[in-house]
Amino acid sequence: MDWSSLELKVISCRDLKAFNFFKKLSAYSVVSIMIMNEQAKKKEEQQKHVQRQKTCIHKGGRNPEWNHIFQFDLQGLPPEESDNVFVKFDLRSESLVDRRIGEVRVPLKDLIDEFCGVVRYVSYQVRNSDGKANGVLNFSYRLIQRMKKSGNHESSPEKVVYPKVEVDYESRDYIRYPSLDDRVYNPKANSEIILLAPLQQVPSHSRKIP
To answer: What span, in angstroms and rounded, lies between the C-alpha atoms of 16 and 136?
Structure first.
């Protein structure tokens, strides 16, 4: 598995049905990573809770809000059970005897396949023990990728090396650049300015600038 952990935020539920019309729900959710293999021979091996965490209790009636963040380790999950791993939300109501409101089961494989690199916000139908709809669960999640080690030191970007250009003025001819006043600078003459004689005398009124 290329992902090291699952960061999950249980946001809220809406339209949960109360057991008693005269008493508000004090709802919370138990979130767990579990392996469900119905083909296992032993009944106790059909369901295994690998990791389990719990939200705070919200005494807000039918529309509780938690905004509780969990982080689950995915590196310890057996690769051969990747198709049987589920994220389970067990919604319960606190009272003298805690009662179950309903549950949501999401295949971990579906969350991984639908993840596109940014936080995803999703909603799932809550089902009670009879399989009937009982509200909607809202949560968000993101997957954290496993870090790849490249040695003891981090690789640094390659430096661009530019070739050196050396000009030997002693062995090469200097370059003459034309100027408006017919002057040429000679680096061998210790900054001496040499005036070149014009080839032909031109009257000042008809002289053209080259």
So the answer is: 8
Per-residue confidence (pLDDT) for residue 134, from 0 to 100: 95
Q: Which of 102-111, 147-156, 178-187 has the lowest mean pLDDT?
A: 178-187
Three-state SS for 31? strand
Instruction: List C-alpha distances in Å: 38 to 31, 32, 45, 77, 84.
Output: 21, 18, 9, 18, 9
Q: Which two tokens stand for residue 158?
A: 């390659």
Q: Is residue 88 a contact partner of residue 64, using CB atoms and an 8 Å limit?
A: no
- Each residue's pLDDT tens digit, 151-166: 554 444 444 343 444 4
- What are the pLDDT digits (tens) for 51-108? 999 999 998 789 999 999 999 999 988 888 889 999 999 999 988 788 999 999 999 9
What is the DSSP-derived secondary structure letter of residue 58? Answer: B
**H or E segment and range at residue 114:** helix 108-114
- Distance between CA 22 and CA 136 in Å, rounded? 22
Report whether 31 contacts 92 (CB < 8 A).
no
pTM attached to this predicted model: 0.67
CA-to-CA distance for 207 and 210, rounded, in angstroms?
Answer: 9
SS3 2: coil
The three-point CA angle 133-135-139 to 5° equals 120
